[in-house]
């Protein structure tokens, strides 16, 4: 991290799916978290806390903490890195550092994936509230709809033939747009709403009934 002069480095997360996970989840890599090319500068929008190494000075000297207002809805990790970026922090991709995360069954359902996107869109608007003009959230909504609807229409034939992953990816974008609109219009609704479940617990056999991160690289945290 020092060699790259980064304040935080982000590795990739490889999902271990249950044996009965739908094939489209695997093909679409919906639960994978890529890091990007080695050394790539990352914007705060691409940050998260899974497989992340942060310079402790931000916590022990500068006093940065998670914001409790995101405690129920999720998004507290992105908010933290947004504030660090605003103070001059720099983020880098570290794809050679990887963890494997065991996904629980609910994460392999379309409803869970769309709910995650919906909350992501809403939390983003909460984070950037007041920036880039009053009507910027509405412009983002129409831009996302303008991209998502044609993608969904184009993906329909493949979905009918049993390859729905591209259609579901387009629906993710539409859910992101809808969540952003709600987050802009009713920010308190999201603040008080319960976040999606992103982790579970291992069953007695240690199989994919929950989420568990285990480092596969010495630099993972």
Q: Which oligomeric state applies?
A: single chain
Q: How large, in whole angstroms, is the Cα Rg? A: 18 Å
Overall 3D form: globular
Report the helical percentage.
40-55%
Number of domains: 2
Overall average residue pLDDT: 86
Number of helices: 7
Q: Low-confidence parts, pLDDT < 50 over ≥5 residues?
A: 199-221
Order of helices and strands: EHEEHHEHHHHE
Total E-strand runs: 5
Structural class: alpha+beta
Largest sheet: 5 strands, mixed
How much β-strand is present in the residues? 5-15%
Q: What is the end-to-end distance?
A: 12 Å
Concise structural overview:
With 221 residues, the protein is α+β, with helices and mostly antiparallel strands. The protein has helices spanning 23-28, 57-60, 76-86, 110-127, 136-160, 165-185, 187-192, and strands at residues 8-16, 41-42, 52-54, 91-102, 213-215.
Question: What does this 3D model show about the protein?
Answer:
There is one protein chain. The protein starts with 7 loop residues before the first strand and ends in a 6-residue tail after the last strand. It has helices at 23-28, 57-60, 76-86, 110-127, 136-160, 165-185, 187-192; strands spanning 8-16, 41-42, 52-54, 91-102, 213-215. With 221 residues, it is of the alpha+beta class. The radius of gyration is 18 Å and the shape is globular. The chain has 2 domains: 1-103 and 207-221, no CATH class; 105-198.
